[in-house]
Structures are given as structure tokens and as C-alpha cells.
Design goal:
Order of helices and strands: HHHHHHHHH
Radius of gyration: 16 Å
Strand content: under 5%
Distance between the termini: 43 Å
Helix content: over 70%
Number of strands: 0
Largest sheet: none
Number of helices: 9
Shape: globular
Structural class: mainly alpha
Amino acid sequence: MFQRLFGRERNANRAITEALYAQIVAAARQTVFYSDWNVPDTPLGRFEMLSLHMFLFQHRLRGEEGVAQEVAQVLIDEFFLDVEHSLRELGVGDVGVPKRMKRLAKMFYGRTAAYDDALERRDGDALAAALARNVRPDAGAWPQALPLASYVIDAARQLEAQPSESILSGTVAFPVAKIQ
């Protein structure tokens, strides 16, 4: 399997992982998040939404074996390369990048644990609280956490319904975020 992902078929598989990553990024950049649900349109706010969608993708592939596991790992690697590239574009120097990357990785994995716990328990209120704590820690009460939690639950359901074969061929569909 590993040979298939990185061997002779590397270019084809690279195109698949690039397509999947582009779809994850597009889902994270839906304007509703920033314009109507008050997610900060800042590098950190965009990191939060990309982290959330990366979590949803990883959550969908969890427990799968073989190529699915490899694709999930390649996409996590791509995500962190993208984050590192963004830090450098923001002017963080070579000395500061590793420290910031370590902090952002810790943030990502902490968030995914909180979101996963709430999602597994199907606890919308706990999910909304975790989202509010992470996406808008400065806001105090953030009423938009509830619609975002509802979106996350819908996205998890929609992703679960997608066949693995479809995802592994390069197509992942997230729901369209709508004002409720």
C-alpha cells in the first residue's frame, strides 16, 4: 500500500491529496463563518476554521486502514506544511518558526480532542462550548457557537455518509454553511 501511495503512482496520488486538501481549505473559507458567525477573519481565525475542517476529515477516516490511513497522514503533513508556510509569509523568522509550530500543533491536537469528545457523545452544547473557547476566547458569550456546532455535527454526518472510495479518489464534500 505504501508503495502505491508514494511509488510509481506518486503523481496521481499527489493530485488526489492536493484535491482533497483544496476541498478542505475551501470548506474552511466559507464566508458565512467570517461574515455572519463572527469567526475572526485573521490568521488565527482562519487557522481555527482550517483546523476544524481538518479535524472533520481526520475524524471521518479514523479507524480506516491501508491507503485511507496513509492519505490521512499525508493531509495532516500538508496541513502543517501549509501552517509553517503561512507563518513564514507573516514574517516569522527561522528561529521563531519551530516554537510557533510546536504551539500551533499543541493547539490543533487539544482542539481535536475536545471536538472529538463532544462529537462522540453527540453533545451539541459541549461542542459549542469547545468551539467558543477555542475560536472566540476573547468574546465571552458567543451566540454563533451554536450554529457552528450544528454545522460541525451536520458535516460529520455528511462525511460519514460518503463512501471511502469516493474520498480516496479525491472527492470530499462538506456542507454549505448557512445562516440559521
